[in-house]
Amino acid sequence: MAKYADKIDLYNDRGQLFESKVPIEALSPLNNPAIQKIIAFVKQCVTVNLEGIEKGLASGEVGGKMCYLRGRSLKLDLVKNAGAIADSLTANLRVKPKDDTAVKVLKGGKHLLVTVPSSRFNAGVEYTTGVTATAAALCSTIINDFKVGMWDADLVHAAVWGRYPQTMEMMGGNVSSLLSVPQQNEGMGYALRNVPCAHIALITKKNAMNAAALSSILEQAAMWEMGDAIGNFERFHLLGLAYQGLNGDNLVFDMVKESAKSGALGDVVQSCVKMALEDKVIKPLNKSASGFVTYTTDDMNKWNAYAAAGLLASVMVTCGSARAMQHTPSCFIYFNDLIERETGLPGVDFGRAAGTGVEMAFFSHSIYGGGNPCVFHGNHIVTRHSKGFTIPCVAAGVALDAGTTIYTPEKVSGVVGEVLSEVPELREPLKFVNEAAVNVKGEF
Amino acid sequence: MANFKAQYYPGSTAISKNRRRYIDPNYKLEKLRTISDEDLVSVMGHRVPGEAYKSTHPPLDELGEPACPIREMVEPTPGAKAGDRIRYIQFTDSVYFAPVTPYMRAWMGHTRYRSADIGVLSGRVPLEMRERDLEKVAKELVETEVFDPARVGIRGATVHGHALRLDENGMMFDALRRFRFDKKSGEVVYDKDQVGVPLDKPVSVGKPIPEDELRKRTSEFRVDGVPFRDDKELIGFIQRIHMLRTMAGFDPNGVKGI
């Protein structure tokens, strides 16, 4: 029995209908197997920079840039022997024969994509199992396979783990995951929000629809984990995920299409209000002396979802036409300002998206510096306030940039984004989530 | 199609009407002066007039874009296509009846101009775009009624002055003395570009708009002009948004038909 009556039409990233009238709960992180798989992969998938380890061992530069251990050097042909290393690593990580352990060799042995078996996570409580198991197994593999003695083993440890445990995280290490260590999360349940937009853009190979979808899945799934998407607010987040992140009813795509050739942000505002009126999400409440019509709604959650879809479309039109990412915070503030002034209804996330824009604008443009949109995420001190509605737009903005920044997504993301783009569910989340929703829709 | 007509801004006073006018992209801003392309480029100071546009990345045709339905659908601006650098023009608007307030620059900028990145601060409003796109937009912003030579400054740095008293010629304070009132011609002349680098030749931006005319065109509420509190409709709107944000933030399901 469905908890909510909402049904939506699913579309792919190119605006083609995939399935009609799917119960909205089929898209919930609590029910959708593809979203759960994506979350599992975020924990299980770990990247190894074998080339980085080889260079670090050879030069003695371990535990962070410019941190040399003079006189220490170990010349090991790791990249050349990546296949053998992958086999040993698999054997070390595997718990049972034919379990879900996998190690894939990429870029001629420079990188490894490791899938740590789920049974290792089941035997613990922290998602850090992914990186700890991989790093430890890799040290063991290198030391055993390359016959490294006890006087050099510490160098291998430093090349793999970085400066940890002197630092809180694996500073300068060559094993990484999308997730940061728990100590770097701003609060409870923030783990999935702590993923910089640079990673998201690269994982999805700069497809803005998929970048927004992956980011929205991680952000909104985090809302369930944080305790936000429950009770009065569950439907609020479900609709937000469905309409903004997953292009429900093709809203985002249609809005972008209307302004694709010559429209500005203001035109997307008009499209959004028009669609909300047509779909009877809002209706006129009264007319004032000046002729200004104030609108009202009986479904504030759905209005928010429409506005959130409009916000994403406004970023796609603005950043898309400029082929530049820096416009995102300006869209956050002024899309919301303008839609509030057009309707008399509150903007996305009831003011929080606009507020997030003010902070992000300052930290991404001002004399303060900060960083370009690549480095922002839902756990960032200035962008965590909107509950899942702004970061998908930032990810889309980053994906649409043609190369206007000094610190490009490639520089910021390092090997993580590139390697994880090998995971189809992460690279094309819309497709997999839609398919999974159709498979489970009968349950509601 | 639902019966929808864009309305842009609430409010019943002349100030609100001006705001509506400026935000409405269908309203053609009235041209009050002519500034040559060369002069404008000099004042902005990003390139020497006539110099080719520098680029930050290769043209999109050469670059090859990733397979993305949004990139395929959304037409890049000429500047983006060519890979132009992103450059800015920044305005300081005096609190003394300047045509537009800082926020107005963002609202009207986003309804009128595609691909604009606008930020609002109390004393300055930067507008960033690809360079050749920016120059077109800047021309309209400087040549039309939303610019007053005396009470709007083109200032990239040391913007201080928006809230200071006007001088004896009605000019806004400028610590870098980029502009001055030329008593002979009655025009405002820029001797320095927007960041204060001396220009090879002075650039005239025309005569200041007379005070009574400014008061008609302004979109600023002032107690000695049209006070904000006179606009009951606008106050009601602001209070409504505040109330709805708060109520929906507490429980969105509880806000119905209000």
Give the helix/strand layout.
The complex is a heterodimer of chains A (about 450) and B (about 260).
Chain A: E1 7-11, E2 17-23, H1 33-44, E3 45-49, H2 50-59, H3 82-93, E4 102-106, E5 111-115, H4 118-122, H5 129-145, H6 153-161, E6 175-176, H7 197-203, H8 208-226, H9 234-245, H10 251-258, H11 265-278, E7 282-287, E8 293-297, H12 300-322, H13 328-343, H14 352-365, H15 391-399, H16 409-413, H17 415-420, H18 424-427, H19 429-440
Antiparallel strand pairs in A: 1-2, 3-5, 3-6, 4-5, 7-8
Chain B: H1 14-23, H2 37-44, H3 60-63, H4 69-73, H5 78-82, E1 86-93, H6 102-112, E2 117-118, E3 125-130, H7 131-143, E4 152-154, E5 179-182, E6 187-192, E7 198-204, H8 211-217, H9 232-250
Antiparallel strand pairs in B: 1-3, 1-4, 2-3, 5-6, 6-7
In short:
The complex is a heterodimer of chains A (444) and B (258). With 444 residues, chain A is an alpha+beta fold.
Can you characterise this structure?
The complex is a heterodimer of chains A (444) and B (258). Chain A has helices spanning 33-44, 50-59, 82-93, 118-122, 129-145, 153-161, 197-203, 208-226, 234-245, 251-258, 265-278, 300-322, 328-343, 352-365, 391-399, 409-413, 415-420, 424-427, 429-440; strands at 7-11, 17-23, 45-49, 102-106, 111-115, 175-176, 282-287, 293-297. Chain A is α+β, with helices and mostly antiparallel strands and 444 residues long. Chain A has 2 domains: 7-31 and 189-443, Up-down Bundle (Methyl-coenzyme M Reductase, Chain B, domain 2), CATH 1.20.840.10; 46-177, 2-Layer Sandwich (Alpha-Beta Plaits), CATH 3.30.70. Helices cover 32% and strands 14% of the residues of chain B. Chain B has 9 helices and 7 strands; from the N terminus they run H-H-H-H-H-E-H-E-E-H-E-E-E-E-H-H. In chain B, strand 5 and strand 6 form a beta hairpin. The longest helix of chain B has 19 residues, at 232-250. Chain B is flat and about 65 Å long. Chains A and B meet through helix 10, helix 11, strand 8, helix 12 and helix 13 of A and helix 1, helix 4, helix 6, strand 2 and strand 3 of B.
